[in-house]
C-alpha cells in the first residue's frame, strides 16, 4: 500500500501532516494530544507513530494563546552583566517556568527611555504581565499596560507609580542591623561607599544607613562613585584609606564595590581585614563567600521575590499592592573578629 506523503523538507510539520501520514482525521490528532480527550488506543498508537516519524511537536502557544497563563510574562531587565541581576533573573525564570509560564526577557538599560521602549514591546507582545527588574518607566505607559489587562510588577522601583504591584526590600531594618554589627565590632567612625546612580534601592540604602548611624551617635563620611562596580570600590579605597584611622569601618553599597575596596586595602595600603578595618557589603553575590573575601553582607531574598511574583500572577483578586521582604544578614569574616566575639 502506498504511504501518504509527509511534509516537504524545511517546512514545519503540522497536525494535518500527521493526520495524513496516520490515515486519521485532523480532530483525531488533536484529541490524541489533548489530556483527557476521548481517542481509541489504536488511533492513538497510529498518531504517535506518525508524529515521531515526522518529528511533530504540539505548538502549545498557538493552541492556547487566548488563555492568560499562556501569554508571555515579560521580564524587563538591565545590567545583566552584574551578579545581582543575574541571580534575580535566575530565580525568576526558574520559578515562572516551573509555574508553566512562558518567559520573555527584554534586555534594557536602566535609563527611563529604555524602560519605556521595553514596556511598549511588552504591549505589542500581548504579555500577561510585565516585571520591571530595574529602571522606572513613565506612569502613563504603565497605566496603558494596566488598562490593556496586564499585571505590572515593579521590583525595588519608585513606589509612587500607582495601580501596580511593588515588591520592595525592607532596607530600614537591614540598615539598622548593619549599624548594630559595626557597633558590636567596636567601630567608632563610619564611611558609606555609594554611587551617584541614584536608583531607588541605592538611595533607600543610603538614607536608612545614615539615619540609623546618626541615631547611634556615629559620624558618617560619604563617598560616591560613578557606578557600583569593582572599579568604584578600588577608587573609593584610594580616596578614603590614605588617612585611615583605627576603628574606622566602611559600608559598601554593593558587594562588587566591597570586593574592589578590600583588594585595594590589602594590596595598596597593606591593611589586614578584619584586623585593621571592618567592611560590610550588600547583595550576597557568590564572590562575597570566596576565601579571598569572606565578606559580611546582606542577602537579597531572590527566591522570596520570585515566589511573590508567582503569587501575584496566580491571584484571581487583587491583594495588597506593596510587598516588603527582608534582607538576610550573612556574617563572615570582614568585621573586627576579637571585638565582635566580646560583644
From TrEMBL:
Claim: Membrane is one of the keywords in the record: no
- Has UniProt tagged this entry with the keyword Transcription regulation? yes
Q: Which PROSITE patterns match?
A: HTH_LACI_2
SUPFAM superfamilies (UniProt xref): lambda repressor-like DNA-binding domains, Periplasmic binding protein-like I
- A single GO molecular function, which one? DNA-binding transcription factor activity
UniProt keyword list? DNA-binding, Repressor, Transcription, Transcription regulation
- In terms of superkingdom, the source organism counts as Bacteria
- InterPro entries given for it? HTH_LacI, Lambda_DNA-bd_dom_sf, Peripla_BP/Lac1_sug-bd_dom, Peripla_BP_I
Q: Which residues form the HTH lacI-type domain?
A: 13-67
Pfam family, any one = Peripla_BP_1
Name the record gives this protein: LacI family transcriptional regulator
